[in-house]
Amino acid sequence: MRRKPGVARVIPLRPAGPEGAKEAKEPLWRDLVGDVLRRERLAQERTLKDVADAARISMPYLSELERGRKEASSEVLAAAAHALGLGLPELLSLAQTRLAGLPRARPARASFQGEVRLAA
């Protein structure tokens, strides 16, 4: 197949499998940590505002952390953990436990050999 000069061909980083096949996706760390934060907050029957105020972070930011939309610094994670009565090691241990309990994702095989794939 000939390409026009100056036109790049886009190759997905995760090649699509056979139609209808569902592969387990690799979980993102921020999703796992966010899930632990939310579960702990709800188990304590506390509001986003209450925990955000105690952690001295904004309520919308805490909400985004819980939903896995933001990648927090260790300082922010420690503040959120302490606001929930946890230490940072305990928060990370809970997230690691969740990670260990998930089904293992199979690495996707490259379908094109000899090509370099770059992520933008």
What does this entry look like structurally?
The protein is mainly α. It has a domain at 29-100: 434 Repressor (Amino-terminal Domain), CATH 1.10.260. The chain is 46% helix and 0% strand. It has five helices and no strands. It has helices spanning 29-43, 48-55, 59-66, 74-83, 88-101. It is elongated and about 60 Å long. The relative contact order is 0.18.
* CA-atom Rg in angstroms: 20 Å
Indicate the low-confidence ranges by residue numbers.
none
The run of helices and strands is HHHHH
Query: CATH superfamily of one domain, please?
Result: lambda repressor-like DNA-binding domains
- Strand fraction band? under 5%
The CATH topology annotation of one domain reads as 434 Repressor (Amino-terminal Domain)
- Give the proportion of residues in helices: 40-55%
| Structural class by helix and strand composition | mainly alpha
At the first level of CATH, the class of one domain is Mainly Alpha
Number of helices: 5
Second-tier CATH architecture of one domain: Orthogonal Bundle
